[in-house]
Amino acid sequence: MSNLPNAKQLPLDNENPLFSRHEHALEKAYEVCPECGSYLIIKRGKSGAFLSCSNYPNCQYTRSVIEQERIEDKVLPNSECPLCTHPLAVKQGRYGMFIGCTNYPQCHHIEAEQHHDDIGVNCPSCHSKGKLGALKEKTNRFGKTFFSCDQYPKCKYVLNYPPVKQVCPECQWPILVKRNMAGGEVVMCPQKKCNYKSKSS
């Protein structure tokens, strides 16, 4: 646990915003406190930004946040905010890219991720711990498809390739993934320590 003195959460207003415009989507860090399981939130102190447990003062966990360089917003052509009709832009936040309204701070609209139906594959990470969880296909803000557990943020298991409901014959991991390689489509184990791979039938 790190201790950052003289830290306080500043009021969020137009005169003195808590974060710069490209960071406004991420006041809540969407991480869980490793000590008590509550959400972490971003605060600012004299030493800069840091993560603090939302269960303070019952839990005093904090962690420093590495500042990122400013990346200019990229306005999306022919886009329109559903709340105020201003253009939308791709922005750089403290935890990655997102699409938000260019009229911030007057408008706080942020585009949500596109979620898809359950693909009928249990989360192998949850399954290995005796818990319930299912993988769902999702699309990020740039149109890239990925597969993650529906129990997030409690489970952060994620795949970049389509899962196959088939046990790995070498390491017994509950699923394989399907990939297009130079020699054609293959199914392979997603576990880094396992090298199983075979041609897709």
How would you explain this protein's 3D organization?
Helix content is 2%, strand content 37%. The chain is mainly β and 201 residues long. It folds into three domains: 7-64, no CATH class; 113-160, no CATH class; 164-201, no CATH class. Strands 1, 2, 3, 4 and 5 form a five-stranded antiparallel β-sheet that branches. β10 and β11 form a beta hairpin. 16% of the residues are buried.
Residue-averaged pLDDT, rounded?
76
What is the number of beta strands? 16
Distance between the termini: 51 Å
The assigned structural class equals: mainly beta
Order of helices and strands: EEEEEEEEEHEEEEEEE
Coarse morphology:
extended
The Rg value, from CA coordinates, equals: 21 Å
Alpha plus pi helix count: 1
Strand content: 35-45%
Assign a percent range to the helix content.
under 10%
Q: Profile the largest sheet.
A: 5 strands, antiparallel
Low-confidence runs: 1-27
Please give the domain count: 3
Summarize the structure.
With 201 residues, this protein is mostly beta strands. The protein has one helix at 124-128, and strands at 7-8, 28-32, 39-45, 48-53, 62-64, 74-75, 88-93, 96-101, 114-122, 134-139, 145-149, 158-159, 163-164, 176-181, 184-188, 197-199. Strand 4 (48-53) and strand 5 form a beta hairpin.
Entry keywords:
single chain, 201 residues, mainly beta, 3 domains, 5-stranded antiparallel β-sheet, 4-stranded antiparallel β-sheet, 1 helix, 37% strand
Draw up the topology in text:
Blueprint: E1 7-8, E2 28-32, E3 39-45, E4 48-53, E5 62-64, E6 74-75, E7 88-93, E8 96-101, E9 114-122, H1 124-128, E10 134-139, E11 145-149, E12 158-159, E13 163-164, E14 176-181, E15 184-188, E16 197-199
Antiparallel strand pairs: 1-3, 2-3, 3-4, 4-5, 6-7, 7-8, 9-10, 10-11, 11-12, 13-14, 14-15, 15-16
